[in-house]
Fold this protein.
Amino acid sequence: MTRARKAVVTFNHNPLLQLGLPRWRARLVLLALLAGMAALLGRSLYLQGVRNEFLQARGESRYARVLDMPATRGRIADRNGNMLAVSTPVHSVWAIPSDASQLEPGQLRQLAQLLEMDVADLNARFTAGRDFVFLKRQVSPELAGKIAALGLPGIHQQNEFRRFYPSGEVMAHMLGFTGVEDRGQEGIELTFENVLAGQAGTKRVVKDRRGQVVEDVKPIRPPRDGKDVVLAMDAGMQYLAYTALREAVRRHNAKAGSVVVLDVQTGEVLALVNAPTFNPNNRAHLTGAQLRNRVFTDAFEPGSIMKPFVAAMALESGKFRATTPIDTHAGHFTVGNRTIHDTHPYRTLTVAEVIQKSSNIGAARMALEFDPEFMRDFYARLGFGSPLQLGFPGEASGNLRPAQDWKPIEQATISYGHGISATLIQIARAYLAFARDGELLPLSLTRVETPPRGTRVFSPQVAREVRRMMETVVNPGGTATRARVTGYRVAGKTGTANKIEGGRYVNRYVSSFVGLAPASNPRLVVAVMIDEPSADQHFGGMVAAPVFAQVAEGSLRSLGVAPDAPLAPLQLTAMTPENAARGQSAGDM
């Protein structure tokens, strides 16, 4: 065999050089390819036909978002439908720092100028390493539109609501206010949060690559708007009380003051004001003194405005009558090792004259005729020592100590308003018993359609007798002639109590007056408190009584209450510190 022939034979028998492959190998590869295709097809059918939510979620994550849909907070209105608190649409500007940090210097300056921020501060927020940051909350729609027109990357907005109070500082303490999240923080806004707030909803939207919403897909849960709240308050009476109180605090250089007006027929709170006050639309520089709703939160020793309750207790017991004489010991009466004083040294006064002249000794002599437990129970039934449970934030209960802790001198001083503390709203509510012929009503901050049932605390006859006594207080010879109102009979009581500091009484005063009008058939209870009026004028008849007269007159005419007295102008006795002391005896101290 030649060498060429041998080479050909060797080539044909070399397995590495054979042109064909084994059939089993080709079939194995084909089966592997078919199995892979079948697995892919099965997986595709499974994901797209059986469990397609995974792919949809992955796809939607590129462009779909779920956004909150804020609920509109309910409105607050007065009893006549005047809007006191409404929510207006605003925007909040926020940023994704990783995107916003790429802004050019010119864009950063434009944004900072619109937001009224420092460029360095704005840039610091973008480089703080956070995923989300608010730039400014509650901006106006006009400003939001200007910011949106810049088209800046990483800068976004969301819709919100801002609370607006048309009456400003006039209604501030009653309404309170909301925070930036539109949640109640004080006053009615906090008390009725569950009613006003509503519930936010959600919706699915489509966003472009810059984060702008390009399509609303569908709502997931629609928002439920808050419900409106209709208050018992009358905006006209509120403004009248506000102006009268503000002027009195200014005139007497007082630290603070409060006024509350109650409807005798329903127990509704028609007006409630405090000074100092604040503007709930601009709370940039608030202080604690401005925020305090003193009518509810400040308990004070009321002084002589408590004396009518001692008279009612004495008459109700049957031990005393209006004409029963009481020896007042010429202005000095010793209990234990303490001496009680009256400014004017009366010898004998009837029960009615004790109220008219405001005798501390007369009130103490009546109180000491009763068991301490009996007296405390009588006061407790009038609401003293317990909060009114109106749901108002910060409501104080006052102080009425257990009867077993009373010493005789303490029982005596409690009769004329020392050694006991109460809030102005508690005192005003207790006076409803005189106005309603011995019946006490629960109070209401919201409008009442059907008057509630009251609780009897003493007889109608006793209530009318004490009312007649309190009428003498505002007539010539009484301590509060400046509380008289043209065309209406008025009944009330003055109070002038020393304040306590460091456990001792000091020469600073709380002046007060609580009255009913018209006395023949009371429709209103008006309570006034002036805290620390100037030293030359601090008697309740001089400081608080004129505020009562102004508020009562305007409110009665606003309600259309018929006059029950001559319409001739009243001749008021000139009130000076000297004759005030003679008329106010005591005990207004």
Notes: Residues 23-50 form the longest helix (28 residues).
